[in-house]
Amino acid sequence: MNEDEWKNKRIEQLLTIGNGCDYKHLSKGDIPVYGSGGYMCSVDDFLYDGDSVCIGRKGTIDKPIFLRGKFWTVDTLFYTHSYKNCIPKFIYNIFQRINWLKYNEAGGVPSLSKTTINKINIYIPKIPEQQKIADCLSSIDDLIDAESRKLKALEKYKKGLIQKLFPAEGKALPEWRFPEFQGCGEWKYEEIGEIGEVITGKTPSTSDKALWDGNIQFVTPTDITENKYQHHTQRTVVKTPKMKVLPKHTIMFTCIASIGKMALSLYPCITNQQINSIVPKSCYNNEFIYYSLLQKTFLIKTGFANSTLPIINKTDFSKIQVPVILDKKEQQKIAECLSEADTMIEEQSNKVEQLKAHKRGLMQGLFPSLEEADV
Fold it and tell me: Using CA of residue 230, residue 232, residue 235, residue 238, what is the dihedral sign?
């Protein structure tokens, strides 16, 4: 056998899995505490000190975390230690390639056990090759982290702009106003139902195949992402006289379960009943109304947070008040300013996704197939 060949090993042959535990008896400090969902708080004692790859025991089981130095983990997060013939950063990259949901042991909240993890087989080379691969991928991780921080900074910048350009709750004037509109009068609060037509969507009969696979986009909440514009849908429908087709640039607002997801349509479309849409009157700029409603979404979500199934019916949605200014030129100026921020965010988001795709491609080339190891 070639000495340089990668060896097939069970995870239990390479490391030891440690249990997280409760931290409530500890005082506040500077030692980070992590659960399966990530950072939680900081305390004055540590459970482990060193490099460690962590994987969720319960909850988020498919997002490994690499930790360095002193830390504490709660019982929803396993940590690893006592590595044998392997380095933690290399194992971290291996863990990112494992389909952890395949090993889920619960019907409700996803769960993993030590026994299951220990029996998973992986391929592993000698230490020098592990180090070289880990160094290569770490440099890409550092670049992804740097670009992700830029993305978060842009998102924070946009949020700050919205807070400055629109009046705070109960105020008649925004903190910032473009010079040419200084002294042009106060803003007012207008009900959505007065701003334009509110339309609740409807799902065509699923049993009537003649209504599907047409040329009109059918939008559901899953088609609305973090983007300003709703770009594509998974299904299309056939236009019928009973269907209300929404014009381009209609504002769509999810009103059931995932309340507050918003987008502007890029093309004529039809939505399902979980979405209330606004077709503003001609005196309003659609993008301006979109941003005005966007800055209210936190308050709207908070009002329905304690409901078992959060829902805003058409009547209640139509009564939501948003701040508006009637000068359409000022509306346009505000919309253009925030649109520029959205464009920068989208470009930066694409850059991060391209780097992640590059890393995935590298990993596919650098690592043997996990399916071959797990036999």
Answer: positive
